[in-house]
């Protein structure tokens, strides 16, 4: 179950970062509230996960899920650029996260 909490925390990380962008500098109340709720939920889920998963494993996976998950959101929703070099580094990030998990 701790891994489910960590996965949900990573998903919430993507969610709150997306709503933060949509809040346009916190000028839209609904998106601002969603950002706050999402970030608190993400932190709480991470906290629950770290009761059973080492911090040195949980934290990089949590931030990595947020980083990797935000990329397709940025490309699809906000028309961010995705160059082949960027894609290569995303793959390297994923490989790094897997490596951290495997060697923990």
Automatic annotation (TrEMBL):
Spans through the membrane: 29-50, 57-78, 84-103
A GO MF term: transmembrane transporter activity
Keyword tags: Cell membrane, Membrane, Transmembrane, Transmembrane helix, Transport
Membrane topology qualifier: Multi-pass membrane protein
Cellular component GO terms held in the UniProt record: plasma membrane
Localization annotation: Cell membrane
InterPro entries: EmrE-like (IPR037185), Small_drug/metabolite_transptr (IPR000390), Small_multidrug_res (IPR045324)
Alphabetized Pfam families for the sequence: Multi_Drug_Res
Major subcellular location class: membrane
Family from the record: Belongs to the drug/metabolite transporter (DMT) superfamily. Small multidrug resistance (SMR) (TC 2.A.7.1) family.
Protein name per UniProt: QacE family quaternary ammonium compound efflux SMR transporter
């Amino acid at each position: 179950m701790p891994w489910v909490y960590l996965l949900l925390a990573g998903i919430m990380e993507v969610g709150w970062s997306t709503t933060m962008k949509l809040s346009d500098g916190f000028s839209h109340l609904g998106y601002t509230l969603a950002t706050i709720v999402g970030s608190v939920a993400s932190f709480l889920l991470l906290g629950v996960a770290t009761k059973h998963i080492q911090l040195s494993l949980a934290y990089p996976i949590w931030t990595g899920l947020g980083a990797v998950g935000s990329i397709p959101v940025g490309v699809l929703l906000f028309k961010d650029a995705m160059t082949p070099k960027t894609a290569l580094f995303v793959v390297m990030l994923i490989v790094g996260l897997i490596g951290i998990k495997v060697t923990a």
